[in-house]
Specification:
Structural class: alpha/beta
Shape: globular
Strand content: 25-35%
Number of strands: 18
Oligomer: single chain
Order of helices and strands: EEEHEEEEEEEHHEHEHEEHEHEHEHE
Radius of gyration: 19 Å
Helix content: 25-40%
Length: about 325
């Protein structure tokens, strides 16, 4: 079957390790389901995998891709939850949690196999392309906002780095849930798009906000960390799920953190139950993921290059004809 996969690790030039071509059919195993992939979306996790983060060389070649929507063996339209092992289903109770492509072949292929427990019904209101955007970036944003930040309608939130998958999802989800959302971006066009998506206003990174916020959604890391901490009201919460600009800020702002009793919460992906809730939220409210571009799987390299450049707003989706 045709697939996009990591053939080698290159920490400095990750796209050098990306190959497109034929790979073996997925292994059939008890308690697992094979899904014909209709659409799959890119995440920065795929670039990190090509750098060898979470993917050692001895597991190569590895088909990339965490997210997918498709058709199961019984003809049902489904969405995949890409966290394997957190419940023990399909892999045994002692296996540590991992994300597809860390231990098991991913979704950038014509077919993929996952534990049957990880297969959820796709709401009929969502297209395959829309549903394929939800299991990683949108689920991460959903958990950051509603589980780990604990915000409620009327609360204020700052989303750093508008344009990326998680940040874009957080803006859209927050606005749809009645939050007062502010956003930042270095790019004027992305700031405008953030406002169109529901943000009250969007600013250049580091700009002073009209008021301090209840929570900050942080995926950028070192470049925005100090601004994130300074933007919180006393007792506010900073939720971080990534560090695309690096994980070593020059100013940790420790004095401000303890003096204002701020909360710093790490967040990774989300649960199957949260994905079910997210799917229902989108189906019932009419909220849809922001898609930057849809490409056929054989043009996956174009999608990777665009994501690596940062020249996108929303998700890139790969489809099988």
């Amino acid at each position: 079957m045709f697939a996009a996969y990591a053939a080698r690790i290159d920490r400095d030039q990750p796209l050098n390790g990306l190959e497109l071509g034929e790979r073996p059919e997925p292994e059939v195993r008890p308690g697992w389901a094979t899904v014909t992939v209709k659409a799959a979306s890119l995440n920065h996790h795929d670039l990190w995998s090509l750098r060898g983060v979470g993917l050692p060389e001895e597991r190569l070649p590895m088909i990339l891709g965490c997210d997918a929507a498709g058709i199961d063996e019984n003809g049902n339209e489904v969405v995949l939850h890409s966290v394997i092992g957190q419940s023990g289903h399909g892999v045994g109770p002692d296996e540590p949690r991992s994300i597809l492509t860390e231990r098991y072949q991913g979704t950038f292929a014509e077919r993929v196999t996952v534990p049957s427990w990880n297969v959820l019904p796709k709401p009929k209101e969502l297209s395959f392309e829309e549903a394929a955007c939800l299991p990683t970036a949108w689920l991460t944003a959903y958990r950051m906002l509603f589980t780990n930040a604990g915000v409620r309608p009327g609360d204020s939130v700052l989303v750093q780095g508008a344009g990326g998958g998680v940040a874009t999802a957080a803006i859209a989800l927050g606005a749809a849930a009645g939050l007062r959302v502010f956003a930042t971006s270095r790019d004027e066009a992305k700031r405008k798009r953030a406002v169109e998506l529901g943000a009250l206003d969007a600013y250049e990174p580091g700009a002073r906000l009209p008021k301090r916020v209840d929570a900050v959604i942080e995926t950028v890391g070192a470049a925005t960390w100090s601004h994130s901490v300074k933007s919180l009201r006393p007792g506010g919460t900073l939720v971080i799920s990534g560090a695309t600009s690096g994980d070593r800020p020059s100013h940790a702002e420790l004095t401000r953190i303890f003096f204002l009793e701020l909360k710093i919460v790490g967040s990774t992906m989300g649960t199957k139950d949260e994905l079910e809730d997210l799917l229902a939220f989108c189906a019932t409210t009419g909220l849809r993921p922001v898609i930057d571009q849809v490409l056929p799987l054989d043009r996956a390299r174009e999608g990777f290059e665009k994501m690596a450049s940062g020249d996108l707003f929303g998700k890139i989706v790969l489809t099988n004809s």
